[in-house]
Design brief:
About 20% of the residues lie in helices and about 35% in strands. By secondary structure, the chain is of the alpha/beta class. Guanosine-5'-monophosphate binds next to strand 6, helix 3 and strand 9.
């Protein structure tokens, strides 16, 4: 039998989604987006670091006219508010009147996007949708409409295909689940 276990730092992971499965699903997601955004010229906003590989593969499968930018989210304690505020680094495009698609690697609790979306909505895009490769429905605590979901997965830590464990594992072509 083929060995499917890998070691990243102190943890063992087993293969969960093969390269073939991921690529097939990304193609299907792109086909949906091509259909939904025909003649619309959307702006894709991919959230770094984790989504770089998914964003790249998804973008390659698009046949519509589309733009892509990458942003990084930073979380800081507001001076007055008690909770964390999420701000973005690198968002230079004006979103007013644009059809915007957020590209995420994984939605876990949903907290990051829940906190960040109001900042985008404030710019009055014409429409705003979310495309995430992975979603952990059992972990999601914040209300979010996920328009394009690659795979719904169990509440277990995963690495690979852009996702890291403490800096490592992003280069893996497959997605692995902690054992
Ligand atoms: P949320 O705000 O939805 O709880 O978390 C979103 C972020 O947490 C993701 O963009 C990702 O960076 C990180 N994350 C959540 N679950 C996992 C996981 O299973 N593996 C990895 N590598 N990162 C995760």
């Amino acid at each position: 039998m083929k060995e499917t276990l890998i070691q990243v730092h102190d943890k063992t992971f087993d293969i969960y989604l093969s390269e073939e499965k991921i690529q097939q699903r990304v193609k299907e997601m792109a086909a949906d987006i091509n259909k939904d955004y025909k003649n619309k010229k959307p702006l894709f906003i991919a959230i770094l670091n984790g989504s770089f590989m998914f964003a790249s593969d998804l973008f390659k499968q698009l046949t519509i006219e589309a733009e892509l930018c990458f942003i990084k989210l930073a979380s800081y304690k507001g001076m007055k508010s008690s909770g964390n505020v999420v701000t973005s680094i690198g968002l230079e495009d004006d979103l007013f009147g644009r059809d915007v698609v957020i590209v995420e690697d994984i939605v876990d609790t949903g907290k990051t996007l829940h906190r960040f979306l109001p900042k985008l909505i404030h710019q009055q895009p014409k429409s705003l949708t979310i495309a995430t490769l992975l979603h952990k429905p059992e972990a999601t605590e914040y209300e979010l409409t996920l328009d394009y979901v690659g795979f719904s997965i169990p509440k277990k830590f995963v690495v690979g295909y852009g996702l890291d464990y403490d800096g490592l594992g992003r280069n893996l072509k497959e997605i692995y689940q902690v054992v």
